[in-house]
Amino acid sequence: MVRGGKLKERDPLFELVLKWITTAEWDMTLTLREAMAKAENLIEQHVENPTGSELSRKCPGISAFFTKLPLCRALDNLSKRVAVEERRFVPPTFSEVRQVFNIAQVYEMKGRVEMLTFDADDTIYEHGMDLDKNSWIVDALCTIMEMGIYIAVVTAAGYPGKPDRYAARFKGLLEKFAERKYAKDVTDKFLVMGGECNYMFIVKSDYTLEEVPWDKFATDAMRSWKDEDVTSMMDLAEKSLTESCKRLRLDVQCLRKSRAVGCYPKQVGDRLAYEALEDVAMSVHDALRNHAKVPFCAFNGNLDVWVDLGDKRYGIEALQQYLGISEEKCCHMGDRFTHTGNDARARYVAMTVWVTNPVETEDYLELFLNEMGADKAKGCAINRRHGPMEGSAEWIKAQVVQRNTAS
C-alpha cells in the first residue's frame, strides 16, 4: 500500500492537513494523528452542511463529501506498513496524506458502492498501453462484476464510431470474459465512456463492444449543447493550443477530432517537460473560460495535452442515469485530480480515490476485496502477486540491484 509516486500536483485539503503538522498555529503544531482526527471531524461536519461548514471556509470551493472518512482507522492501516508516526525528523509527505484519505474512502465503499469507475491510462494500465489478460487488475475487476458491482472505464480517449479501437485497449478483459464464458448478467456490468462523456460502449454477446447511441445515454445538460457552440469552442481551443505550443517551441503535432483536439510529441518516445504541458493546458483554459458556451476539459495528460467537449463529471453522471445509480453509490479512481487534470470534476458526482499508477490501483482494489469479506473476494485478493513476475525484465533488474547492493 505504501507507494512513492511523484505527484507534481497540489490539493488544498491535503495541504491544509500538512500545514497543521508543519506550521505552528497558536504556538503549536499537531501530530499526524491529531491532524487526521481534526480533518475527520471537519469532514463529518461538512457532510452534514457542505455550504456553511468550517471546512468550506478553510478550503474555499471544496466539493461535497458523499461519506464520512475514518481517517484515524486509515492511518492505523498505513502505519502497519510504514512507521510514519515514529519518524523524528522527517514530516509526513503529501503522498502519505493522500494515501490515508484513499484508504479511508475504500473503507467507506464496503456495502455502499454499486459502480466503480476508472480512468484508463496510468490507472488500470501504463500510459498508452492496453489492458493485459494476465494483469491481476483483470481478475479483480471480473470478481467485482461477478459480485454484482458495475465497472466502467471513463477515459479521455475518443474513437467515435470505432468500438474496435476501445476493444483493443481492453482486449485482456474481454478475452477473460470469453475464457470464463460469462453470461449477460456479468458482461452487462462492464461499460466504457470515451471522450470524457461523448461515446458510450457496452459488451455484446460475442464479447466485443458496440456503441450506444448518444440519445440513449446523454443527460439533459449534454443534450443542450448546440453544434455551433461546440464548433466555436473547438476552433478557439485549437488556435490556443497551436499558439501555446509554438510559443514554448514544443516539437509536437496537433490532432483535431470531432469533439476533441490535442497535441503530443512528434517523435515516438519523446517526453515533453511537465511544466511546459502545464503551461499549455492552463493557457487553453484561460483562453476558453470566458468565451466557451459549452463545458470543456483542457488537461495535462503527463505526456500530452488534450481539450475535450464536456468532462468526466458529465460522463459519470450519464452512466449513473443510464444505470439508475445515485452519486453516493459510485466511486471513481484516477490519477489526474489536479487543476489541469481530467479526473478532478469527478469529485462533484462520486466518491474518489487518487492513485499515481496501476500498482496503487491494485493496492486499493485488494483492500476493497478484503473489506467485502466474501470468500470469492478474499480469494482474489490473496492471489495478487506482489512485485515483478519471476523471469521478467523488472525481476531481472531487481536481482541485479539487490546483488550489487548486498555485495
Describe the secondary-structure layout.
Elements: H1 12-22, H2 32-48, H3 54-58, H4 71-81, H5 94-109, E1 115-118, H6 136-146, E2 150-154, H7 163-169, H8 171-179, H9 184-187, E3 190-194, E4 199-203, E5 209-212, H10 214-217, H11 220-223, H12 227-247, E6 252-256, E7 260-265, H13 274-288, E8 296-300, E9 305-309, H14 312-323, E10 330-334, E11 351-354, H15 358-372, H16 375-382, H17 393-406
Parallel strand pairs: 1-2, 1-10, 2-3, 10-11
Antiparallel strand pairs: 3-4, 4-5, 6-7, 7-9, 8-9
Structure description:
- The chain has helices spanning 12-22, 32-48, 54-58, 71-81, 94-109, 136-146, 163-169, 171-179, 184-187, 214-217, 220-223, 227-247, 274-288, 312-323, 358-372, 375-382, 393-406; strands at residues 115-118, 150-154, 190-194, 199-203, 209-212, 252-256, 260-265, 296-300, 305-309, 330-334, 351-354.
- It is of the alpha/beta class and 407 residues long.
- The strands form 2 sheets. A 7-stranded mixed sheet has the order 5-4-3-2-1-10-11, sandwiched between helices.
- A hairpin with a 3-residue loop joins strand 6 (252-256) and strand 7.
- It starts with 11 loop residues before the first helix and ends with a helix.
Q: Tell me, what's the shape?
A: globular
Q: What order do the SSEs take from the amino end to the carboxyl end, as H and E?
A: HHHHHEHEHHHEEEHHHEEHEEHEEHHH
Radius of gyration from the CA trace?
22 Å
Strand content: 5-15%
Number of H/I helices: 17
- Helix share bin: 40-55%
Terminal Cα span: 29 Å
Profile the largest sheet.
7 strands, mixed
| Number of extended strands | 11
Low-confidence stretches: 2-7
Multimeric state: single chain
